[in-house]
From TrEMBL:
This is non-specific serine/threonine protein kinase. Keywords: ATP-binding, Disulfide bond, EGF-like domain, Glycoprotein, Kinase, Membrane, Nucleotide-binding, Receptor, Serine/threonine-protein kinase, Signal, Transferase, Transmembrane, Transmembrane helix. It catalyses: L-seryl-[protein] + ATP = O-phospho-L-seryl-[protein] + ADP + H(+); L-threonyl-[protein] + ATP = O-phospho-L-threonyl-[protein] + ADP + H(+). Residues 70-360 form the Protein kinase domain. It holds the Pfam family PK_Tyr_Ser-Thr. GO terms for cellular component: membrane. Gene3D superfamilies: Phosphorylase Kinase, domain 1 (3.30.200.20), Transferase(Phosphotransferase) domain 1 (1.10.510.10). Its main location: membrane. The keyword Secreted does not apply. It is an enzyme of class 2 (transferase). GO terms for molecular function: ATP binding; protein serine/threonine kinase activity. Belongs to the protein kinase superfamily.
């Protein structure tokens, strides 16, 4: 019995020793896993969880944004809805903070909700990223990633030669912009219509990668809905599709039209409307069409200072622009087709004259409004007619009601 008792005690002792050893090994392994180098699995999981959390827009306080922007002292730019300031957080992240104008009314609320709801659910290389927002009685602001090279209009319309961009890079910017709009129209769970595509809303990062920005006018709609209900004029004159300014059905193709107008300004590296030029060149899109129709593209190349090695890509961009600005929305291509045409994987069809309707004559007030939307002009309109149209623009009640300004101002 004594032997059996000793044997039992030995077994118990060995079991305790083995258990302690196993526990020690497990504890050691857990410690090693927890303290793995940055390129190991444990750290990757932590980073992944942190990144997932950051995907949600952060709600900032007014105090945080005042500190980051040094009390809103560094102005980057301003627009119809607000002023944008540069800011830097304590972790070194540089941001652009857009402070919205106005008191807390329905229009400001709608613009704010449109921006946050749209940008908070979209993630694409060619769309600006929304980090967060502030919504307090004293401050309504949106916090975006900072774009080192500002907006595209600074490079298209500045006279400083050092700020110009070559056509190879401009083509990439056009491609990136088209890809971003394609994502909004065709790849989001709900189709998103931007309504205000223009150079000022195309931002450029440190590598001049294009990012579509400013979704304050955006409207989400179900894909099943082919038409969109409108409560008033949207967009910027000179870029807005005719259906946005007339009693016509509105579809997502209004963004295609605006992109076409943007392409014209990229090709000409000038504003589409320039009253300082002769009558025939005041409105660039129709002058470009006349040169295309008469097969006088050499004149366009010379006027726009386009080098011979860029001719092929510019010819393609011009044809795509003419396809995009067709008067009837259903004759405009989808943006995914536009991307393929720009990259050369889809042959660009011969465009029809997109401006023939402008010369039928003005018989209704809505026709005058359409002229205003395109900033009028062209070889078949006299200077006096153009000036008269301009006077109508500045005095239109619709313009005052929605605080719309001419793009070239």
């Amino acid at each position: 019995m004594a032997i059996d008792g000793s044997f039992g005690a030995l077994v118990v002792s060995l079991s305790i020793i083995v258990g302690v050893a196993v526990f020690g090994i497990i504890a050691y392994l857990c410690t090693r896993i927890y303290n793995m180098p940055e390129d190991t699995f444990g750290k990757d999981i932590n980073d992944f969880l942190d990144n997932m959390e950051r995907e949600k827009p952060i709600r900032f306080t007014s105090k945080q944004l005042k500190t980051a922007t040094e009390n809103f002292s560094n102005v980057l730019g301003s627009g119809a809805f607000g002023t944008v300031y540069k800011g830097t957080f304590k972790n070194g992240l540089t941001v652009a903070v857009k402070v919205l104008y106005g008191t807390l009314n329905r229009r400001i609320e709608e613009q704010f909700m449109a921006e946050v709801s749209t940008m908070g659910r979209t993630h694409h290389l060619n769309l600006i990223r929304l980090y967060g927002f502030c919504f307090e009685s004293t401050l309504r602001a949106l916090v975006y990633e900072f774009m080192d090279n500002g907006s595209l209009d600074n490079y298209l319309f500045k006279t400083n030669e050092g700020d110009s961009i070559g056509f190879e890079k401009l083509h990439e910017i056009a491609m990136g912009t088209a890809s971003g709009i394609t994502y909004l129209h065709e790849e989001c769970p709900q189709r998103i219509v931007h309504y205000d595509i223009k150079p000022g809303n195309i931002l450029l990062d440190s590598k001049f990668c294009a990012k579509v920005a400013d979704f304050g006018l955006a409207k989400l709609c179900n894909r099943e809905n082919t038409h969109i209900s409108m409560t008033g004029g949207r967009g910027t004159p000179g870029y807005a599709a005719p259906e946005l300014w007339m009693p016509l059905p509105v579809t997502y193709k209004c963004d295609v039209y605006s992109f076409g107008m943007l392409l014209f300004e990229i090709i000409g590296r000038r504003r589409n409307m320039d009253v300082t030029l002769g009558d025939s060149q005041q409105w660039f899109p129709i002058w470009a069409w006349n040169k295309y129709e008469k097969k006088q593209l050499k004149d366009l190349m010379v006027a726009c200072e386009i080098e011979e090695n860029d001719q092929e890509v510019v010819d393609r961009m011009l044809k795509v622009a003419l396809c995009c600005v067709q008067y009837r929305p259903e004759t405009r291509p989808d943006m995914s087709i536009v991307v393929k045409m720009l990259e050369g994987t889809f042959e660009v069809p011969e465009p029809l004259n997109p401006f023939s309707h402008l010369f039928i004559g003005v018989s209704e007030p809505s026709d005058s409004l359409a002229r205003m939307a395109w900033n009028g002009g062209g070889s078949d309109w006299t200077s006096s007619e153009t000036i008269m149209s301009s006077k109508v623009v500045t005095g239109t009640p619709l313009m005052h009601k929605y605080e719309i300004t001419i793009a070239s101002v």
